[in-house]
Amino acid sequence: MTAEQTQTAGMRLLFLGTGASQGYPAVFCRCENCEAARERGGRSIRRRSALLVNDDLLLDFGPDVMAAARDERLSLHRAQYVLLTHADSDHLHRENFDQHRPRWAQPEIPTLHVHGSAATLELVRGYPWSLEEMRVELRVVAPGQTWEMGPYRVTALRARHTEGQQPLFYVVQQGQQALLYATDTGAFFPETWEVLERLRGEGVRLGAAVIEGTSGTRDTKPESGHMNLARCGEHHRMLRERGLTVAGCVHLATHFSPNGSPLHEETAAFLEPYGVAPAYDGLRLTLGN
Questions:
Q1: pLDDT value of residue 6
Q2: Pair 253, 212: CB distance under 8 Å
Q3: Alpha-carbon span 15 to 177, nearest angstrom
Q4: 205-236 tens-digit pLDDT
Q5: Domain range enclosing 76
Q6: Separation of alpha carbons 100 and 96, rounded Å
Q7: Residue 3 within any structural domain of the chain
């Protein structure tokens, strides 16, 4: 699909994973949630979080991306862009880049243009293979920065997570469609709301908002590096109240941990009063149809 076709065909989303760092269930864990997920299966089984936009843009590049692509019978050979939120191992698995070398990926495929904070990209630079061998180009981005890449206009936002990693999340625009993907963050910083309101002033309205709910039904403080489901729901409400979403915006939660998040159906029931639904592995959406 060409860039021009991508502009007019709507923004297609595929959730490659919706779990937190240990996945769901955690492989060594026998807590109530993990045991129940093994028994129930279905949408309660979650890979580590990642999202594919169209065929060419990945949000995060964690350890389950390759397995997700195989499970979905999907080739990632069209991927050209990667937006990294931060350097935690469930979001950045450097060994994935090894698979992008000519030895393993034939015939010729596009260069991967990888975006993230300086601290995050330093880990990519430190991998044993050179960037040239992996067919990778890096671009450092900062909170509040907006840039163009192919058919997309992207804005980086400051995340409330491990500060030394300079964590980010993103608004991705494609034509008239816009997606917020906010994982691994606590309560949004005031400066983050200011950037979102700047985008609103530029005419941007979100057609989909995806916000993490890692801590589930546990109590968490706003300054925590993760949200619980209630705070996730409140952030979705604030997006609506501040006029940042279109009518019919798809409101989703992601990045669920068994250490607090109940199984899929119970999570759905908790989020329903907020007008939010839990995403699940393999969920496909198209914005702008």
A1: 44
A2: yes
A3: 18
A4: 999 999 999 999 999 998 999 999 999 999 99
A5: 11-280
A6: 7
A7: no
Distances from the Cα of 51 to the Cα of 106, 201, 265, angstroms: 24, 27, 21
- Predicted local confidence at residue 1, as pLDDT: 38
Give the bridge partners for 82, in sequence order: 58, 114
Is pTM beyond 0.85? Reply is yes
Position of tokens 């590049």? Answer: 61
Q: Exposure pattern of 109-129 as b/e (b: 16+ CB <10 Å)?
A: beebbbbbbebbbebbeebee
Sorted by sequence, the CB contacts under 8 Å of residue 233 that are 6+ apart come out as: 253, 271, 273, 274, 275, 276
Q: Which of 38, 23, 51 is nearest to 250 (CA)?
A: 51
Higher pLDDT, 145 or 101: 145
With vertex at residue 155, the alpha carbon angle to CA 208 and CA 197, rounded to the nearest 5 degrees, is 70
Is 4 within a domain? no
Displacement of CA 199 from its chain's centroid (Å):
19
* Structure-block tokens of residue 235: 């952030």
Q: What tens digit of pLDDT does each residue of 4-27 get?
A: 444 447 999 999 999 999 999 999
CB 151 within 8 A of CB 173: no
CA–CA separation, 96 and 111 (whole Å): 14
> 3 pLDDT exceeds 70?
no
* Residues 13 and 179 sit within 8 Å (Cβ to Cβ): yes
The number of distinct structural domains making up the chain is 1
The mean of the pLDDT values for the chain is: 95
Q: Does the residue 24 lie in any domain?
A: yes
